[in-house]
Amino acid sequence: QGQSRRDQHQKVRQIREGDVIALHAGVAQWIYNNGRSPLVLVQIIDTSNPANQLDQNHRDFFLAGNPQREVQSQRGERGRTSERRSTSTGSAHDNSGNVFSGMDERVIAESFNINTDLARKLRGENDLRGIIVSVEHDLEMLAPQRSQEEEREEREEEAQRQLERSPRARFNGLEETFCTRRLRHNINKPSEADIYNPRAGRVTSVNSHNLPILRYLQLSIQKAVLYKNALMTPHWNINAHSIRYITRGSGRVQIVNENGDSVFDGQVQRGQMFTVPQNFVVITKASNEGLEWVSFKTNDNAKINQLAGRVSAIRSMPEEVVANAFQVSVEDARRLKDNRQEVTLLSPGSRST
User: Fold this and answer.
1) How far apart are CA 177 and CA 9, in angstroms?
2) pTM
3) CA distance 255 to 252
4) Interior/surface letters 53-86, b for 16+ CB within 10 angstroms, e for the rest
5) CA–CA distance from 142 to each of 3, 32, 86 (Å)?
6) For residue 333, what are the contacts with CB-CB under 8 A and spacing of at least 6?
7) In what ranges is there compositional bias, type Basic and acidic residues (predicted)?
8) Strand pairing category for 345-346 and 242-256
9) Residue 10 and residue 62: Cα distance in Å, rounded?
10) Class of residue 240 by CB neighbours under 10 A (exposed 0-12, middle 13-18, buried 19+)
11) CB 3.0 to 4.6 Å from 283: which of 91, 101, 234, 288, for a disulfide?
């Protein structure tokens, strides 16, 4: 209670492996790993979203530290060009530091009502730690326990659903509801899988229906788990591009463009990332060790159209149409339509002869 009187801050949200976290553009954020294992974050940034009023170059605005080396290596040629330009205009802006580094220390001191020594520390001139820093002692802050966090998020989710149903919801300012929005959804729970095949794997989707904030970000996420030698049916994304990040295992991926050309045909493994453009057909087969990935899609309610399986495009066509389109017999057309009764995830098995 004493701490709550001394310090006031916004919500501190607990995160864990498998969490999808959605943040609005321009939101200040920090992340602290209080666990016993490394924390790996995969970040997707959409520079074409309506909130971006700059150009298509992503920019990180750091509030603290001196991330000069990391930022320059990330910016590449653009960073070197900016550095040459700033060198010609003076040395005061040579560093890629935090936002305070470009301000006069006296103005900072006056703004915060502090002395200039402390203002100089805000500028981070002698801070060489970079983007990721080590905490000397564990952070002490007000944060709910895991069970309290989950209960609170359930209440927030229900409140958000009521807000979305309200006819006036679309006219409320974003700043009024951001702090009460549910920003996190765990995608690792097998019990919440949208598609499950005991012989092939599972698929879980997070979109604007179960995480409404994604409607503003125009993004959705899909987690796929393929068992040993299983396949994800050949399909295309109807209304989105897809960025895949392999999180576990290995397998083979083929991507075909509108001309029928194979633009990618190769093995993928943990840590690799690739893009599947809208309407390009992709097929994925897991290796003996299985394959898992996360797909980030550029639509808050991304949809796919499948080529094989019980809900495929070919299955929806008359046998005669299929037979004539592929120059096969009606019997073969029937096999094309009916030999796979599974949806999305296909179990491994011998091919029909």
Assistant:
1) 16
2) 0.69
3) 10
4) eeeeeeeeebebbbbbebbbeebeeeeeeebeee
5) 8, 14, 42
6) 319, 320, 322, 323, 326
7) 75-86
8) unpaired
9) 19
10) buried
11) 234
pLDDT of residue 88: 35
Strand residue runs (E) in the chain: 19-21, 184-186, 195-197, 201-206, 220-226, 231-237, 242-256, 262-269, 273-276, 281-297, 304-306, 345-346
pLDDT at 142: 57
> Helices 105-112 and 116-123: crossing angle, nearest 10°?
110
pLDDT at 163: 57
* Architecture of the CATH domain 188-346: Sandwich (2.60)
Burial of 259 (C-beta count, 10 Å sphere; 0-12/13-18/19+): exposed
Name residue 21's beta-bridge partners: 184
pLDDT of res. 206: 94
Nearest to residue 94, comparing CAs of 71, 60, 74? 71
Which residue in the block uniquely carries the two structure tokens 């290995």?
A: 250
Degrees to nearest 5, angle at CA 286 with 280 and 289? 155
Locus of tokens 């301000």: 103
Q: Which residues pair with 226 in a beta bridge?
A: 201, 291
Residue ranges in the chain modelled with pLDDT below 50: 1-4, 77-95, 168-176, 350, 352-353
According to DSSP, the β-strands at 281-297 and 220-226 are antiparallel
Give the C-alpha separation, 68 to 202, whole Å.
42
Q: Quick one: pLDDT at residue 144?
A: 58
**What's the pLDDT at 204?**
96
Query: Do 292 and 224 meet the contact criterion of CB atoms below 8 Å apart?
Result: yes
Q: Given its phi and psi angles, is residue 22 left (phi above 0), alpha (psi -120 to 50 degrees) or beta?
A: beta
